[in-house]
Amino acid sequence: MSLPTILVADDDRSIRTVLSQALGRGGYQVRTTGQASTLWQWVEEGEGDLVITDVVMPDENGLDLIPRIRRIRPDLRVVVMSAQSTLMTAVKATQRGAFEYLPKPFDLKEVLAVVARALATPATPVQPLTPPQPDEQMSLIGRSVVMQDIYRIIARLTTSDLTVMINGESGTGKELVARALHEYGRRRTGPFVAINMAAIPRNLIESELFGHERGAFTGATSRVAGRFEQAAGGTLFLDEIGDMPPEAQTRLLRVLQDGEFTTVGGTVPIRANVRIIAATHRDLRQAIRAGTFREDLYYRLNVVPMRLPPLRERVEDIPLLARHFLNENAEGAGSVRVLDDEAMAQLQAYRWPGNVRELENLMRRITALHPQESIGADIIAAELAEASSVAAQGEGGGGAAETLAEAVERHLRRFLSSGQDGMPLSDIYDKVIAEVERPLITMTLAATRGNQIRAAAMLGLNRNTLRKKIRDLDIPVVRGGT
């Protein structure tokens, strides 16, 4: 039985040598060339059991070869390697029919694993897709190993409608990934509709998602299409899915199971023709244990999990990102700002609690406030110190948005520390609960324009309980509500 033959095409002699030696030791026969035309000649003659090709070669782009190879030899698998290491390269390789995409520099063990998997995988008909041609790569920037993994996952998912769950800290680019999955996918001609669960009042989420009929509730003067209808034929992005209230979770689960829904107040089923992409910064497994998120809904949404790494796990991408954001803001500033080596080193040493969004805001601020073209470490140090100070005071700034739990913890720590200076502390529980209840009820009444029935429903309280709390906490009552 003859050994499998691997055809390697790369204009870099050292790459050809390294791959030839590694594959030879792995038990394969290897033929190498620096020309796409030679590779094509071998393929036409029926040579080889697998192709490994570079993208950029002197006579032809390796990506353009893939559809031609697939047409005359559909069983011949093609592995693409590239030093460009961009999302667009991964997408083009996958959608033109490549078996796998390997960014350079690659690990030889990974190459051998990919080759073994490609040769062992039964051949299946693949219809190459024409990849989209956007101007940019959806602002997903980075050549780190973790980002290359993200690119490959996105590329693979563009050929299916599988439901995706994106998990990552605030500012890591979850919506950018969702948009990339849509823009490079089969539904790219349809709409991309996003809804942030954390930004919608709990009692309005079902209406926002599924729409409502005229007269479904007070104020519903006409029929309104929900996000599922608006996204028909396209993608529905459910951001901060961990903040979805239980009753809406139940209804969403039913839609995912049955493939159809009804509007609030409606009776006619409507087909849910959307691809679902969900995202959260929360640990949903912990939420399941706490009883705030349905386990069955989690598994319906978590078909393909994706974890976006925080910026501190991809510090090698910071120079690329910083230069990109500085270039983006150069037009209004008159010239491009340049970071010196010490300034860049400071950026890479910082922890970035706000991730890529915080870095972007910092580069905007530097471009606007500092006229000199060369930005030194002193400017970076001062800006980062200011950002850290603002974040510590709970005022936002360029950092990550502070959660309610973090804000409460920060205030409680300050409150409890006062007892260490000889100040008496007593009835802490009642005092803290009153501090939280008063603004919560006041703001809920403001949101409902004084309507105590709606406010009680939003808060999950009995109306008489709400009235007692209003009285006990001395909350001003807005007249005219019902």
Describe this structure in words.
With about 475 residues, the protein is α/β, with parallel strands linked by helices. The chain has four domains: about 5-120, Rossmann fold, CATH 3.40.50.2300; about 160-305, Rossmann fold (3-Layer(aba) Sandwich); about 315-390, Orthogonal Bundle (Helicase, Ruva Protein, domain 3); about 430-475, Arc Repressor Mutant, subunit A (Orthogonal Bundle), CATH 1.10.10.60. It has helices spanning about 15-25, 35-45, 60-70, 85-95, 110-120, 145-155, 175-185, 205-210, 225-230, 245-260, 285-290, 295-300, 320-330, 330-335, 340-350, 355-370, 375-390, 405-415, 430-445, 450-460, 465-470, and strands at about 5-10, 30-35, 50-55, 75-80, 100-105, 165, 190-195, 235-240, 260, 270, 275-280, 305, 340, 375. The longest helix has 20 residues, at about 430-445. It starts with a strand and ends in a 10-residue tail after the last helix. One of its GO terms (biological process) is regulation of DNA-templated transcription. It comes from Komagataeibacter intermedius AF2. Keywords: Activator, ATP-binding, Cytoplasm, DNA-binding, Nitrogen fixation, Nucleotide-binding, Phosphoprotein, Repressor, Transcription, Transcription regulation, Two-component regulatory system. It is found in: Cytoplasm.
